[in-house]
């Protein structure tokens, strides 16, 4: 499935999680799926935990995150040691 088609699975509803991106209008936020990956879950364990979820939904979350990060503007903050390269 191409990226544009995958992104159709990501929706927004101000009544659900304050309008954060969610999957197919359900009460599962993209950030929650990404957080599960960050915590060490795999696509298989995520799919097992949400029987209605499809592999393409997980791929859509990754595409959405990729697109968002690709448009971030990075700036150095004067005096911020975190921006220094060791």
From TrEMBL:
Pfam families: DUF433 (PF04255)
InterPro entries xrefs: DUF433, Homeodomain-like_sf, WH-like_DNA-bd_sf
Protein name: DUF433 domain-containing protein
Organism of this sequence: Leptospira wolffii
Organism ancestry: Bacteria, Pseudomonadati, Spirochaetota, Spirochaetia, Leptospirales
């Amino acid at each position: 499935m191409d990226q544009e088609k995958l992104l159709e699975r990501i929706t927004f509803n101000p009544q659900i999680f304050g309008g954060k991106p969610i999957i197919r209008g359900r009460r599962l936020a993209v950030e929650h799926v990404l957080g599960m990956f960050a915590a060490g879950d795999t696509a298989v364990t995520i799919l097992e935990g949400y029987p209605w979820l499809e592999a393409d939904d997980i791929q859509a979350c990754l595409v959405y995150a990729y697109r968002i990060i690709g448009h971030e503007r990075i700036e150095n903050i004067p005096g911020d040691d975190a921006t220094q390269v060791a």
